[in-house]
Design brief:
The chain is of the alpha/beta class and 294 residues long. The chain has three domains: 61 residues, Nucleic acid-binding proteins (OB fold (Dihydrolipoamide Acetyltransferase, E2P), Beta Barrel); 155 residues, P-loop containing nucleotide triphosphate hydrolases (Rossmann fold), CATH 3.40.50.300; 67 residues, Ribonucleotide Reductase Protein R1, domain 1. It is 28% helix and 26% strand. A six-stranded mixed sheet has the order 10-9-8-11-13-12, sandwiched between helices. A five-stranded mixed β-barrel has the order 1-2-3-5-4. Strands 6-7 form a two-stranded antiparallel ribbon. The protein is globular, with a radius of gyration of 21 Å. The structure holds zinc ion. Zinc ion binds next to helix 8.
């Protein structure tokens, strides 16, 4: 007896995958065919499985991914929440901009979340990213500001949160969904302490969607495959988009040229200066990347 079902991979451990379907969570093995094709199922993959009585359940097919990350290994991420604090630690626009650019490049929506809005004004940061066409939410775990708005944005989505512990990421996650502590706690216990170093990713139920997290996971590590080529870079800055193609020279790099619409928009105050500074820094780096390196 067997039955086909559609589901979502919540996690994979030691060759077993835990797939959530409308009827429950099933432990499955991937069909050998995937190994031959060098495809590894990932958390976040939407799959078709066969549920068997008296023998192993199998993953039969994987739906086309909208995107995937290498570290942590996960597919179909909808939102990258970039968590920064108003102060303690002082935020770096260069780091935020790198993350927003990588997110856009991968087809993930970046959302800048500014914590500790009760400690200092979040206005300046929020103004920069709102102007850049990036969703920005100021939150305070103390006053509850912004929590409902953020819940709404995350609802029904698969999200990853970046940001180190000092920005108050764990406090924020718990303020958003108090069931998370319990879920992650159970998970840590089951695996035992020594296993925390394995960068196993798991999807947790979160705000009506899923949170991709690993125990002890604090920020995304980026690899060569996450680097952006110089010709693609301008498209990773949403506020540049409407100006692209309108510069005086078709070879414009949008760094300093005469007749560059981006440079003009910065002078007119339409594009934040810090965003262009980051763009120029990434452009310098990207000049040295060769396509074959990716
Ligand atoms: Zn230009």
């Amino acid at each position: 007896m067997s039955e086909k079902q559609n589901g979502l991979i919540l996690k994979g451990i030691g060759g077993f995958y835990y797939v959530e379907t409308a009827l429950g969570i099933y432990e499955c093995k991937a069909r050998g065919a995937f190994r031959k094709q060098k495809i590894t199922p990932l958390a976040g993959d939407r799959v078709e499985i066969t549920v068997n009585v008296n023998q192993e359940n199998t993953i039969d097919s994987i739906s086309e991914r909208s995107n995937f990350l290498v570290r942590p290994p996960i597919a179909n991420v909808d939102i990258m929440a970039i968590v920064v604090a108003t102060k303690e630690p002082k935020p770096s626009t260069l780091i935020i901009d790198r993350l927003t650019a990588i997110a856009v490049h991968k087809g993930i929506e970046p959302v800048v979340v500014v914590t500790k809005s009760d400690l200092a004004s979040s206005e300046e940061l929020c103004a920069i990213y709102s102007k850049a066409g990036i969703k920005t939410v100021a939150v305070s775990s103390v006053t509850g500001e912004g929590i409902d708005l953020l819940k709404e944005i995350l609802s029904g989505k698969i999200s990853v949160f970046t940001g180190n512990s000092a920005v108050g990421k764990s406090t924020l996650l718990n303020a958003l969904d108090s069931s998370l502590d319990l879920q992650t706690g159970e998970y840590s216990e089951k695996l035992g302490r020594g296993r925390h170093t394995t960068r196993q990713v798991e999807l947790f139920k979160f705000c009506g969607g899923y949170l991709a997290d690993t125990p002890g996971f604090s920020s995304l590590d980026f690899e060569k495959s996450d680097l952006i080529l110089k010709d693609e870079l301008a498209y990773c800055f949403p506020e540049f988009e409407k100006h692209l193609g309108n510069c005086k020279f078709s070879t414009c790099t949008h760094t300093c040229e005469k007749g560059c619409r981006i440079v003009e928009a910065i002078e007119a105050g339409e594009i934040p200066v810090s965003r262009h500074n980051s763009y120029k820094a990434f452009f310098e780096e990207a000049k040295n990347i060769k396509e074959w390196e990716l």
